[in-house]
Amino acid sequence: MGKSGEMDLVHGKMGKKMLLFALPLAVTGILQQLFNAADVMVIGRFVGKEAMAAVGSNSPIIGILVNLFIGLSLGTNVVIAQYTGSGDKEKVSKAVHTSVLVALISGIFVTVFGELIANPLLHLMDVPENVFPMAILYLRIYLLGMPVILLYNFESSIYRSRGDTKTPLICLVVSGVINVCLNLFFVLVCHMTVDGVALATVIANAVSSGLMFFFLLRSKSDIKVRFHCLRISKDVLKRIMQIGIPSGIQGMVFSLSNILIQSAINSLGSDVMAGSSAAFNVEIMAYYVVNSFGQAAATFVSQNYGYGDMDRCKRASVLALLQDEVAGNIVVFTIIAFAPRIIALFNADQVVIMYGAIRLRYLLSAYCVDVLIEVFSGVMRAYGYSLFPALATLFGVCGVRIVWVWTVFRAAPSFQRLMVIYPISWIVTAILLVVVYYWKVRSKVFKANREEFSR
What we know:
The protein is mainly alpha-helical. Helices cover 84% and strands 0% of the residues.
């Protein structure tokens, strides 16, 4: 692997490079979700819609438990990219070794903490009694894999910071095939249920993170991992946390609001739960396309900011926004056009298909707005302003959705009335982010750069 997959982000034309960076990243996310969707498909087809609902009801919980640390991995991406742009190889190496240890320690913490709160959290979400035993079984097994799941995310961030999105994709393809094969083996041959697909997921994640670690050990560049260098650098960790913790809080806010919405979905019955679960596994693929260009913006701007080329930072921001809108809309319109047929792959029940198609139409129709959130958040993190996106998300997503569920939805509960809050909350958040970016961040960053240049 070595330097072969790395990309020079501070020289040459950016259009093709950004596509070569973002598209493998999008494919990685989509394949990851396809392999996760295989869990739901196998359960839905060969076990039943209650088991399918049990797996789906865990998504918000898993999100809130891991998103803080996934945010830290985004901090790793930005910090290593900045050090790469400035040519500081020693700090790149320190950041890599710090990130690997933080990933493993964080994973152990999430496993222990998650196991302790799993039962009360599922009760808090009003998971129906006929679904609860399978939901708790799936969650407890899934949580055992958190150390390797977080390690994969941090390792991926290390590679992304160097412009390499192909190595994580290769590792994911290998582990994903293993995941699908184990799903079928555990459910059809061993006659397991949700425990089988959870175990398959843990094993597959161990394979992907293990492969990535092996490649880091064999790397020829300054991201090479050496066992004797595995220690936490306080200065580097502080910088990663300054960017990563607000990013993680931003992800957790999304998950908190999703837990509230999932609780509302659970109150509408297992058919709605199953349909919503299937739709989530489809819509998240569109999100990964949108998010890939947001991560491209963060990486390109980080490296060029470290290099000191502000004009290139501006071009990277605009280019990411334009490419994201085009790619996102292509995926969105394709999914909406075939929504009922896609949901039918998960479960043939016509009521489940109806609810799944409703969710897809409501959410995906507003993804052009979510593009603004992803790109502007990524650019602000690249400049070191990670708190602003988190605060905008706290108010625009979490706050708006909580108020909606407790007022409008409670007054007249219906699935459509619940789904409409997604586009509303995205619009509010996007407006806040755009205003803050142009009013505060962009002017301050460019003014500081001009003053530095004038010296």
